[in-house]
Amino acid sequence: MASSMLSLASASASASPSLSLHDNLKGRVKLGSVNFISCLPDKTSSSAKAKPSGRISMTVGVNVSRFEGIAMAPPDPILGVSEAFRADTNEKKLNLGVGAYRTEELQPYVLKVVKKAENLMLERGENKEYLPIEGLAAFNKATAELLLGADNPVMKEGRIATVQGLSGTGSLRLASALIERYFPGAKVLISSPTWGNHKNIFNDARVPWSEYRYYDPKTVGLDFEGMVADVKAAPEGSFILLHGCAHNPTGIDPTPEQWEKIADVIQEKNHIPFFDVAYQGFASGSLDQDAASVRLFAARGMEILVAQSYSKNLGLYAERIGAINVVCSSADAAARVKSQLKRLARPMYSNPPVHGARIVANVVGDPALFGEWKAEMELMAGRIKNVRQKLYDSLMAKDKSGKDWSFILKQIGMFSFTGLNKAQSENMTNKWHVYMTKDGRISLAGLSLAKCEYLADAIIDSYHNVS
Ligand code: KET
């Protein structure tokens, strides 16, 4: 808090305890019924010039912030869980909040292939000059090829605008800025539920959004009819946000047949599909299989937006490396879109960081490293599948109520959507020290085989004993 010398000019000027923006800008801060005038930014009200004119006037030293009118923001529903976890001293605590991969020992994991790529980079002694606004050319090529396949006609025809972004979030934000500028009033439709940050991103970019039905709590599955009906009912030319694979938080993906029908409706209504691909390779263990949804739309010749992230599949969370791709119907349109993405990026963050981009380019560009990455990704995806199975087995063995827990096995990716409500999720944390998001999502990537039984006890208690 900034410390200011204040002149107490009037003890009766205002009865309003609130701080108005106007007052704040003029350097005046109203506190209760006392009107303080800061001497520092407003020369006319300096204590030296404050003249007594029948009013009480004295100089006092008080800690008063210009930010008095700013309320405390609530903790982030996902990243705030990690903060609460760190503050807990109980030795049984378990962090199943954020989607970040841990080893069986519950330690963060740096992929071996990443360390090898970093060693290569050190050996080469690469410089730290600014990247171009669109990012590292070798990364942009590699990331688009990974998404669509190197032999995809879109690549050959130069119909894709790829710009390196600040991981998945930054890439989504850049795409939102493009929508806000060039499609004013167009709506983005997001699934209900979706990753919590989607709404924040569109709100901050001033892009209107609404939800389409996705999760059906009765079947603990996809509400396909509802989804299709809502996409159909959206104003023509809407952006339809789709999770490329491993839907977060539900872990429920459409089947290949359902993807075809979703593409039909989107095409019929002239909507623009907008994919968020944060888990390529993490859902099935195969990069190609997990990109099948996007490739299906591309094969129809549709124009598509795709945000990519390397946080999970290469474990590059803190490097903030990802991309925004816009597949266009012509190379000419792609060139123009790319120029505008650069124009939007320049005043926001100028140009992206180089380290993560070089790691991805080195790994994907070297056949041996690429092979090693795929093997490590399969290992990570496999460990998550193992804990998924063990959690299910533990629940079935311990819970004698006859409840069907098989949905846990059907879900895909890092998460399990347990169906626990807010109160039950709070019980998981308050009583069992299991940290998770309040929507009932648990990150299986933060679970070990050794902790599955403990977690099953916590879930059974919360599910049956808390309403
Ligand atoms: N999309 C989805 C669907 C997603 O789950 C995440 C991250 C991102 C994009 C962005 O990740 P980035 O690190 O910006 O590339 N999700 C996890 C972390 C977070 O909330 O930031 C999570 O859901 O736990």
UniProtKB/TrEMBL annotation:
Enzyme nomenclature, EC number: 2.6.1.1
NCBIfam families, sorted: PRK09257.1
GO terms (BP aspect): amino acid metabolic process
Cofactor(s) required, per the database record: pyridoxal 5'-phosphate
Species of origin: Punica granatum (Pomegranate)
GO-annotated molecular function: L-aspartate:2-oxoglutarate aminotransferase activity; pyridoxal phosphate binding
PROSITE patterns: AA_TRANSFER_CLASS_1
Residue ranges of every copy of the Aminotransferase class I/classII large domain listed in the record: 92-459
Key words of the record: Aminotransferase, Pyridoxal phosphate, Transferase
Record family assignment: Belongs to the class-I pyridoxal-phosphate-dependent aminotransferase family.
Name of the protein described by the UniProt record: Aspartate aminotransferase
Gene3D superfamilies tied to this protein: Aspartate Aminotransferase, domain 1 (3.90.1150.10), Type I PLP-dependent aspartate aminotransferase-like (Major domain) (3.40.640.10)
Pfam family, one: Aminotran_1_2
Misc: In eukaryotes there are cytoplasmic, mitochondrial and chloroplastic isozymes.
Functional note: Amino acid aminotransferase important for the metabolism of amino acids and Krebs-cycle related organic acids. No activity with D-Asp or D-Ala as amino donors. In plants, it is involved in nitrogen metabolism and in aspects of carbon and energy metabolism.
Subunit and interaction comment: Homodimer.
Catalyzed reactions: L-aspartate + 2-oxoglutarate = oxaloacetate + L-glutamate
First-level EC class: transferase
